[in-house]
Amino acid sequence: MNIKVLDSIVYEVLLSLSLYKRQTHLKYLAISKDWYEETKHKISNELHKEITELADLQFEDLSVHLIQHCPYNNFKGYHLWLSELPLGEMYELLAPYVSEKRGMPSDLDKRRKNHLLILLKWYREYFIDIEEMVSPILTHNIKNVDVSALKEHPFSEIEVITKGFNIENLQVSEVVLAPTWHFRPLSLVDIFNEKVVLTYPCSMGVRDETLLITKALAEDKRLQILSGMKEESKTFTELVQLIGMSKGNIHHHLLLLRSAGLLRITPTRQEYFLYNFRHCRIKELSDLLLSF
């Protein structure tokens, strides 16, 4: 299994654009709770309209593979490289990662041009002002990855880095790890046939990590959820039945537990997760409290 750590500011630019478009899990993220509204007022009305009118992010979701193959890790270099990349070569780079579910866009070149246009505007109107702050944080979290531990114990180390993702059952041939500042404290997973992309959160410091865990534990229903999965894995549906709460409430509690690193999450190729109580996080809480 080949494991790579993605070192490119472009991926964070892309993630922030995706976050603005999808507004995924905003209330669970470490960025300002008003981030979306503040960003909306920062960018032009024209750009906001272009983003909201995007039918989907099909090309953007695939573009992580282009970012990985790009010889430049800065935005200007990526933008120029992708604009000049022959269409046939781009198709060949993306082809191994498409599937029946995540197909190749039929209008690939049109999608590329629109991607480059919107991403450039987004970079100029939003990201460039925070790049000097975010870039060294991402670099620090890349350098903190223990490469030797990844080689010796890949699955357990990936679980540590991502605060809970267990990918051993996926039997993939390639893993890409990429740090994120915008999606802290959550990790994300994308499966592309024999390749998995794991986006892991930049470290948040002793105080914030301690508060994530203690706040997640300070609720009876979340303790019930952890108790219900301490012996064996549970699916989301099984947890809904076990706890007797609405799907929305269970989803909310799982995200808080996930943010705190209290869940071992096993993705499956059937597009559902298996959840376990990640007991080792309690020992980590003890260590955090002692160093507080």
Give the CA-based shape: globular
Largest sheet: 4 strands, mixed
Provide a count of the helices: 15
The proportion of residues forming helix, as a percent range, comes to 40-55%
Instruction: Estimate the strand proportion.
Output: 5-15%
Give keywords.
Arc Repressor Mutant, subunit A; alpha/beta; single chain; four-stranded mixed β-sheet; 3 domains
Question: What would you note in describing this structure?
Answer:
This protein has helices spanning 9-22, 35-42, 45-52, 58-69, 75-84, 87-94, 108-125, 131-143, 147-152, 154-161, 205-217, 220-228, 236-243, 247-259, 280-290, and strands at residues 2-5, 174-180, 188-192, 195-201, 263-267, 273-277. It has three domains: 8-131, no CATH class; 138-201, no CATH class; 205-290, Arc Repressor Mutant, subunit A. The radius of gyration is 20 Å and the shape is globular. The two termini are 37 Å apart. β3 and β4 (195-201) form a beta hairpin. The longest helix has 18 residues, at 108-125. The mean pLDDT is 95. The chain has 292 residues and is of the alpha/beta class. Residues 202-292 form the HTH arsR-type domain. It holds the Pfam family HTH_5. GO terms for molecular function: DNA binding; DNA-binding transcription factor activity.
